[in-house]
């Protein structure tokens, strides 16, 4: 993979990986490498307006000259990124739906295409993506080991990658959604977000952060963080 941009900064005594500086967040960097390794050219994704899996794919697909079709459930909340990704990918808004219902619609939609289209797994995308994400994490902190790292969790894909990339670090997950695909067995400390997934963070950090995910770590970091801790701010 090409050298990732310099994203480390510092605020209030904490180190931050500023994924908010990437349009699709840190997962976009891994997807840009992973998509080019796939035989398909068209990728279908079922996401949520509260996460950043959809914009990560949209921007990565644009960068790699791939086609992205994104299914989302209609919501009262409209994220800032929605209007932007409509310009670079096909976005299909369904009536209020679960991810399972969206996936059924995606399967029906895929029948219009041949094997060039592929439905991705929410959050973790597909086989091999985790390795690409681990490589990105290592490249971002290649010369900067940290004893303690805070990670927001929705699907758990990023948490799993950070733990694999830095087995000597104390990784502290903050779970922002119920029933993630991956829950850490190694973490000695973990927290649950004080707000429900569809509720924005009430305590915002002093840097741009995703109000429905990453920003929810800040209340716990203010209370339990230690100076010098690293914060994985995956997106905004």
Describe it:
- There is one protein chain.
- This protein is of the alpha/beta class.
- It folds into two domains: 8-23 and 130-233, Rossmann fold (3-Layer(aba) Sandwich), CATH 3.40.50; 28-119, Rossmann fold (3-Layer(aba) Sandwich), CATH 3.40.50.
- It has seven helices and ten strands.
- It has a six-stranded mixed sheet, with helices on one face. A four-stranded parallel sheet has the order 5-4-3-6, sandwiched between helices.
- Helix 1 (26-35) crosses helix 2.
Architecture blueprint of SSEs:
Blueprint: E1 8-11, E2 14-18, H1 26-35, E3 42-46, H2 53-63, E4 67-73, H3 80-85, E5 90-94, H4 99-110, E6 117-119, H5 129-140, E7 148-153, H6 157-165, E8 170-175, E9 191-192, H7 218-224, E10 230-233
Parallel strand pairs: 2-10, 3-4, 3-6, 4-5, 7-8, 7-10, 8-9
Antiparallel strand pairs: 1-2
Helix pairs in contact: 1-2, 1-5, 5-6
């Amino acid at each position: 993979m090409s050298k990732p941009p310099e994203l480390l900064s510092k605020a209030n005594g904490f180190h931050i990986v500023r994924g908010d500086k990437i349009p699709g967040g840190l997962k976009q960097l891994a997807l840009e490498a992973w998509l080019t390794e796939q035989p398909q050219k068209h990728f279908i994704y079922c996401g949520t307006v509260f996460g950043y899996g959809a914009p990560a794919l949209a921007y990565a697909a644009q960068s790699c000259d791939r086609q992205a079709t994104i299914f989302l459930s209609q919501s009262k909340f409209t994220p800032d990124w929605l209007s932007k990704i409509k310009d670079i990918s096909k976005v299909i808004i369904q009536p209020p739906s679960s991810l399972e219902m969206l996936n059924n619609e995606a399967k029906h939609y895929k029948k219009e295409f041949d094997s060039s289209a592929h439905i991705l797994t929410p959050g973790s995308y597909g086989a091999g993506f985790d390795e690409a994400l681990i490589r990105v994490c290592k490249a971002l902190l290649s010369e900067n080991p940290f004893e303690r790292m805070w990670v927001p969790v929705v699907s758990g894909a990023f948490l799993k990658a950070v733990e694999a990339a830095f087995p000597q670090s104390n990784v502290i997950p903050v779970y922002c959604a119920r029933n993630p695909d991956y829950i850490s067995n190694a973490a000695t400390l973990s927290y649950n977000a004080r707000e429900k997934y569809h509720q924005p963070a009430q305590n915002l950090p002093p840097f741009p952060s995703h109000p429905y995910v990453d920003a929810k770590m800040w209340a716990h970091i203010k209370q339990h963080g230690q100076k010098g801790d690293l914060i994985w701010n995956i997106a905004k």
